[in-house]
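Archive entry. Fields below.
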Amino acid sequence: MTARRGWVVIAVSTVALALVWRVLPAGSPPIYDGQCIANPYAILGGSPAPLSATKTFAAAGAFPPSEVLTGETPPQAQVLMEAGTFDNSTAVTVTITPVPAPPSKPPNGAVEGNVYRFSAVNAAGTELEPASPSLAVFVILRGLTSSPAPTIDRFNGTSWTPLSTLNAGCGNTFEVTSTQLGEFAAVRPGAAGGTTPATSGGGIPGVAIVGGLVVLLLIVVAVLFSLDRRRGAAR
Amino acid sequence: MVERRGALRSALIIAGIVVAAALRAAAGAPDTAASMPAGVAFALALLVVAFAAGWRPAAPRAAALTLGVGGGGALVAAWLLAHGPAGIQLAPLNADLALWTPLVALVAVAEEVAMRGALFDALRSWCGDGGALFTTTVLFAVLHVPLYGIGSLPLDLAAGLLLGGLRIVSRGTLAPAIAHVIADLAGGWLL
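PREDICTED_STRUCTURE:
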């Protein structure tokens, strides 16, 4: 491939990147890979306490694409909203607050971490919901572990509903789309009814897995070295 | 014969990269992306695989350096353009960030050395630049799914393509490595 074609690849990929960023509900800078910074999870009632977040959007013709996130690293709770999500004819205040877990237990496991209440109110104090189902909000919560991956559940005041959950990356963060606000929590799959995560048990010990992978890596490296030496000798 | 050897070498390098990623996941569980020891182990494993495959650093060229800075700028600018620069600020300097910065640079460089260095060279010896570009781009994106979720796939495909383009134009690993480091550091330094 010529350098000229390489430039075409660069141009095409730059445009693709800009398009992908425009389409994705991007709330964070461009981490393409690498490490993330994740401070310990702050539990409600513990020290440091988990943070709340609130943002007021002045009255405007249309609600702007926006995000509200708590101040931990990474944020323990975030909500991403598309343009027009709420009726913005008066000021809209979006708030995220950690709240005590309700007595009702999720059907699919145990709540891990905090329960967060997501709300939006207009200037009259009326609770708002997304203007239409096509304007669902993206709720991102941090869990305590990715293995097993938690599900994010929504509490409607009487019962919990599991939502289709995607891994959102750094610090065990997980994402759902929801057509309604309310209370959300990461739910560890398994024994229903608890609020404290159980520690994982059973299976192959982690040390054995790491040891096995190191041996495998050494074999690959040894074969590559031998191939490279033969290639050098042939030259 | 040359093609068979190139294919075998490519397969072994891919196997080495996959094992290194699995090692990172196993050593860093339950929060792999935030585990610094797992990140170091991953980077060292990639560098060993690349070295064993015959990759050696070339003398740095000013043109590649400039191209790398430009590529890194493009990776960050794509996000800035979509997001809008309003509200973006520099992260406060603290111990976490001071430790994180060199580690992220090490991981990014190691990934480039293994993928767009050793693997790209091995692939192009038997399937040309096009095949090498395709394979390294897909591998780059797929390897990040366990860390950042399926939602990262389109983003990492586009980023991998750009880094591959830099590799082809500069005919070396320096430009994609610099671009990759700049893009990753922006993830921690910009809020």
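CURATOR_NOTE: Chain B has a mean pLDDT of 88.
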